[in-house]
Amino acid sequence: MQSELRVLHIDVDKNWRGGQQQALYLHQFLSDKNIFSVMACTENSMMGKKCNKKKLSKIEVNYKNELDFFTAFKLLQVCYKENINLIVAHSSHALSIALLVKLFVRKVKLVAVRRVDFAIRKNLFSTFKYKTNMLNKIVCVSDFIKQVMSIDERINNKLITIKDCIDTTKYKTIESLNKLRDKLQLHESSFVIGNTSAFVGHKDYPNFIRASKIIVQKYFQSIFLCVGDGILKDEMESLVKEYGLMKNFRFVGFQENVVPYVKLFDIFVLSSKMEGLGSSILEAKAMGLPVIATKAGGIPEIINDGIDGILVEPQNSESLAQAIIRLIENKNERLTLGKNAMESVKENDVLHYGNEYLELFKQLLVE
User: Fold this and answer.
1) Does 141 share its domain with 206?
2) Fewer Cβ in 10 A, N or C end of the chain?
3) Is the CB of residue 25 less than 8 Å from the CB of residue 354?
4) Torsion sign over Cα 6, 12, 17, 18
5) What's the pLDDT tens digit per position in 299-356?
6) CA–CA separation, 307 and 8 (whole Å)
7) Which residues constitute the domain of residue 96?
């Protein structure tokens, strides 16, 4: 007889990025199906705030590091109290905590989500985390990540691909953006090229900024709207100043709701040199935006080049700039790409995503 599914999610990041949104989508999906689902998150985290807003079950922990036995003990108590039979670790750090918990509840199934497109670190701890038989499945968010992870039979047998999703319904509301346009000093003649990446190394903002320098030489009224935060933000602002482009750039920092800002974009750009999948692309597609992105990692799995977006080589500012100029000069192509994007993104609907996870969880419970 199959046990009733009871799920504990673990996400220990305080900030809000694509991985947290995907974890919340899954938590919401299971909860809506009346499946017991609880999110373990760090105190004062964005995940906790989002769970409160959506009235989703959560437990907060004072997470310190990957060997935080106090956090693991607290989650072990949750497992006992709530009869948890499946844990989802939504990051590598979360997996470390989950493995500490599973030392004492070996019958609980454990699933890890892998979102990054680089190989497992070669230190003993990282190797153990993914090879141990305590870990039942590794969900890769792209086939590219799955290929990168296929280095050992003990890992390869655990791998499955479930691509990121998007809730297309939340982008359908149309609200006036005039106040926001005024706040950002955007004129009617401004052509807005947007990027919602975090300011971290693999997102390659220098590539985006170097491309902008080429573009403004021909289209001086172009505006580059950067929505996000991160450790490299100040450094990137300094680079923009060095290039004399401050009047063309708008740095608005982290925004809990990026939708109004993205709706101001004429083109969405992702300039990464490494990328697991690029869930921000799905948001742009859902809003009918033409997308230009690099061929890094799993990005080509969600963009059909020339059909619902344009792909360029990573770390090639000239190629990126010319692709953007091409769309600035061709309104019909922008409209066609955007229309096709809205259609193709339906393949990444949250219901399809949730059902794929649910099917996986049910299979694990009967093994």
Assistant:
1) no
2) N
3) yes
4) negative
5) 999 999 999 999 999 999 999 999 999 999 999 999 999 999 999 999 999 999 999 9
6) 40
7) 6-165+349-366
